[in-house]
Known about the structure:
Shape: globular
Radius of gyration: 19 Å
Low-confidence stretches: 1-19, 32-36, 139-145
Largest sheet: 5 strands, mixed
Oligomer: single chain
Order of helices and strands: HHHEHEEEEEE
Number of strands: 7
Mean pLDDT: 75
Amino acid sequence: MSLFRSIPAAALLLLTACASPGTSMEEVMRRTAPLMPKRPDPLTYGTRPENPVRVGWGDKGVMAYFKLLRGPQGQPVAWRRMGDCCEFTEVDGQGEGKGRLSIFEVTYDGLDTPVVLYVDAFTGGSVYAPWGFLLEGQGDAPPPSGTEPDIIDL
């Protein structure tokens, strides 16, 4: 594989822009911004159908995501699948299949009201923790040692 095939287009543009004499960092950011993936709105991420958690990999992706999801102090979460909604054409490059978002009710010790999360098991992408949650390995608080999340239903 060629070196240039393995470098994302935005990184290649950034490298060539930086190599151009007289190019400011603001100009580089302006040129590369349309190519960079946008981080979802943190206030609605996962909690609205138009901004779902895109885990990909089907049920395996969903399970892996919920194993990493934690409460704000590192508490393991419990989740329950509520059903499906919101049919869409799969974003797999083919556009031939149909997908649906899965709806989960998620809670942890100390949470007064469960949170409803919308999860896209068909489309992969960068995953984040919804507002008020952490992902193991990305937060300040480590998960309690020796604890496993309770799987309610999937």
